[in-house]
Fold each of these.
Amino acid sequence: MAEERMTSEILEHCEAISAPFRITHGASFQLKDVDPACTLDLAGGKGEAKTALEQGVRMLSELQQKLYAQNRWGVLLLFQAMDAAGKDGTIKHVMSGVNPQGCQVSSFKAPSTQELAHDYLWRANQCLPERGRIGIFNRSYYEETLVVRVHPELLERQSLPPSLHSPDLWQERFREIRHYEAYLSRNGFLVRKFFLHLSKKEQKRRFLERLNNPEKHWKFSAADIRERAHWDHYMQAYEEMIRATASDQAPWYVVPADHKWFTRLVVAAAVIDSLQGLDLHYPQISEEERRALELARQQLQAE
Ligand code: ATP
Ligand code: MG
């Protein structure tokens, strides 16, 4: 009982748990201001957070049913992170109660030849959620300002006309993405972006754990070590990206990722808080529809 009470108290504070990590105006944002090991000193710690997450999953399931029934809004949740930050586990846990029919996860890996033959937002556009649905992007078009920036040779493969190569390319991409997200928002699609902020030290620990445990070998790839070597460059690219693309309608959440239980709680709280802001409700039926239902009921009973 006492535990139940404490738990619901955490979830009554979805706004308080997620707001410290929400960036809507990036001008003064610095990555060093968010500690990857932060847990907000939550009373009850990991144990209570896990129970709260279970309750959060149930709340999300209910909100999603209303989203689906109302069929007005769509939701795009986008995840970015360095390897081993826990994107997959967070998506799996936070969305575990959601009806698979109302939710779709898209993973963005290195683009195919067909994808490279188009503009860089093309493949993301194919995967946008419908109204009433939640779309999850596991990585996203933001890779175009991250991995492509850290490895400029990837840009060569995009076959842009030479006259369009400009020193301002990254700023232009930021602007295009801001406009794209504003466009989605104005069309009734809620955009929420999560950067799972892992420390370099914790990434090393997780890689070693994967290497030392045969059941986790499959999760390890030599490419992960290669990307780790570019850590500082990635952090710089992430910081600039967040500064340039955080907005009121499409905020970034920079979520501490050294403690998985805390990451999951913050993400769940942020999604609940955002969906609650939509004032979702089951559609009301008209007087005429109510009469039709009553007629149907009488017909069935008369059989
Ligand atoms: P996991 O390792 O948990 O399976 P992941 O998201 O890291 O998940 P990988 O297959 O390891 O999946 O990596 C996908 C790779 O694709 C990443 O290194 C990412 O940077 C790269 N990628 C994604 N989008 C692009 C892009 N537009 N251009 C080039 N590379 C990209
Ligand atoms: Mg990977």
Amino acid sequence: MSLEARGVTAGYGGTDVLVGADVAVRPGEMVGIIGPNGAGKSTLLRALTRRLPLRAGHVLLDDRELDRWPRLALARALAVVPQTATLPPGYTVAELVAMGRTPHQGLWRPASREDREAVSWALDHTDTRHLRDRSAEELSGGERQRVVLARALAQRPRMLLLDEPTTHLDLRYQVELLTLTRHEVARGLGALVVLHDLNLAARACDRLAVLSAGRVVAQGTASEVLTAPLVRRVFGEGVEVRPDGERPLVLPRFGGT
Ligand code: ADP
């Protein structure tokens, strides 16, 4: 499934925060959105998922305007892991992950074998099975983040949007989460992921789009995009970019070094 923003402008109150953004994700592709704080990354994700109305432009899912998708078909196809996902209190982890199946189930119908398999698979692949009987309130930030991902994966979406999914995760789980997502991407999932860590983004994603002050200022492979002039212009002078095999390595530069 493909997702495409064409000339998307969106914002809040009197301000356009995102201006004329063009971004496309094809099936079997993982695209990283990078950019400094306040650049408009979360706003782009909101515009791409109808949580924020467009002021100009189009969002197309499989070449059809998002607004023209029936609600249920859209709920099955598209999964979003927001930056601050709230998990409703009073449920066990297994119940929360099973909520990912809601768009596939008829009202009041018991879970099918397919539902149970999807939940079981998601628990295994996010290393949350051992938490299945715990309630979400008892979990650490990183555990909660994995449960939110498990819920999204249990949905078996065809397009996955992730807003800084690695924020609360240690390095091992950051790599595991992106490796798991890549595994699904290799099977045809499309993924758009907002990432803070440029080196992680460079290694995990097929392509990167750089947002700066609400505009997409560069798009392409990591080595096309993460050039020293662009990285300094967008993120400031305190960085250096070194070649590292196929992908550049972005490092902080401290006074005089
Ligand atoms: P990023 O995800 O790149 O950090 P955001 O998309 O969250 O950036 O924010 C872009 C700009 O929009 C910021 O200036 C932010 O203050 C503003 N903004 C974000 N959300 C809202 C909102 N709900 N109401 C008003 N302004 C907002």
